[in-house]
């Protein structure tokens, strides 16, 4: 019997010793783990209100259960398809521009030979990520103002009339995507630049021997070497295809652009925190849960496709 117990004890002791040796790393991990539990995992239990006629006075335990009534109400709402259309279009354009531009930028930065210039460009591109959405949208309002804005001044000099960009529904999506590109391209490019540092230098030397120029080395060496990173990031982006930057949208919001600016998340916000009467938390939770389920299905589909056509996948 002792011969069976000893290996298990020894194995557990070895695991505890390795954990103790790496205690600093686990200590660094602890804040992130606490944040994950408190703000990501524990709130999941609150999703039960999506199936209730929730009242803040009665609480979760005493509120009336109504099943999928909120889901049916949302899907039967005539406004439903407009919200889905606006969300998908905004997400599509976001994916079309915000996803590839950091890759292209990282490829160009990787080709810069002067390390001082490379560091300066990286720092300059990374800086917008730390600017809050409120400041970015405020800058946008100033630049595009029909009265004294830089863009309209240039249009006036060219003989055109001033355009009220922020009140034009047709300009909302381009402006939203442009802001996201400017704010995120430097931050997102770090992942691809980090992947490029692991590329074997001998591959570039072999390409030089074959007479490849810089462009051919990018196409035949750099891109294939970081393809697994690109696939994983694309799958993650697919999972967020129904997620938009609500802060930017609410800051850019005004009644004249509701036709293109109103998306599922802004609708959830209005329902959950309605200004007239009591907030409808249950309905907002139901719409949010439906959105998450759709995003999960999209991730599973994208992951399945990646397994079929590539070795890279999330799981």
From TrEMBL:
Membrane topology: Multi-pass membrane protein
GO CC terms of this entry: plasma membrane
Segments passing through the bilayer: 24-51, 88-108, 120-141, 175-197, 218-242, 281-303
Domain ABC transmembrane type-1, chain residue ranges per copy: 84-302
Entry's Gene Ontology BP terms: transmembrane transport
InterPro entries tied to this protein: MetI-like, MetI-like_sf, UgpAE/MalFG_permease
Pfam family, one: BPD_transp_1
Subcellular location field: Cell membrane
UniProt keyword terms in alphabetical order: Cell membrane, Membrane, Transmembrane, Transmembrane helix, Transport
PROSITE patterns associated with the record: ABC_TM1 (PS50928)
UniProt similarity note: Belongs to the binding-protein-dependent transport system permease family.
Protein name: Putative aldouronate transport system permease protein
């Amino acid at each position: 019997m002792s011969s069976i117990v000893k290996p298990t004890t020894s194995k557990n002791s070895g695991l505890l010793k390795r954990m103790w040796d790496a205690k600093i790393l686990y200590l660094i991990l602890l804040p992130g783990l606490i944040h994950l539990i408190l703000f990501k995992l524990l709130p999941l239990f609150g999703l039960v209100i999506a199936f209730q006629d929730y009242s803040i006075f009665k609480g979760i335990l005493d509120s009336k259960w109504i099943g999928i009534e909120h889901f049916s109400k949302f899907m039967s709402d005539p406004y439903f398809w407009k919200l889905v259309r606006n969300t998908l279009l905004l997400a599509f354009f976001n994916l079309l521009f915000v996803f590839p531009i950091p890759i292209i930028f990282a490829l160009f930065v990787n080709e810069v030979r002067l390390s001082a210039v490379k560091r300066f460009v990286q720092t300059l591109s990374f800086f917008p990520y730390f600017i809050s959405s409120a400041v970015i949208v405020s800058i946008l309002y100033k630049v595009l103002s029909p009265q004294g804005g830089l863009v309209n001044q240039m249009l006036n000099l060219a003989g055109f009339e001033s355009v009220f960009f922020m009140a034009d529904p047709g300009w909302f999506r381009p402006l939203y995507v442009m802001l996201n590109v400017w704010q995120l391209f430097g931050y997102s490019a770090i992942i691809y630049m980090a992947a490029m540092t692991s590329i074997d230098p001998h591959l570039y030397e072999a390409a030089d021997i074959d007479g490849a120029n810089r462009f051919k080395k990018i196409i035949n060496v750099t891109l294939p070497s970081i393809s697994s990173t690109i696939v994983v990031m694309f799958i993650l982006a697919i999972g967020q295809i129904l997620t938009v930057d609500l802060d930017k949208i609410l800051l850019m919001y005004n009644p004249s652009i509701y036709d293109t600016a109103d998306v599922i998340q802004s609708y959830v916000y209005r329902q959950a925190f309605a200004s007239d009467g009591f907030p409808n938390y249950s309905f907002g939770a139901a719409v949010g849960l439906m959105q998450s389920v759709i995003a999960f299905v999209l991730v599973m589909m994208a992951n399945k496709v990646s397994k079929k056509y590539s070795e890279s996948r999330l799981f």
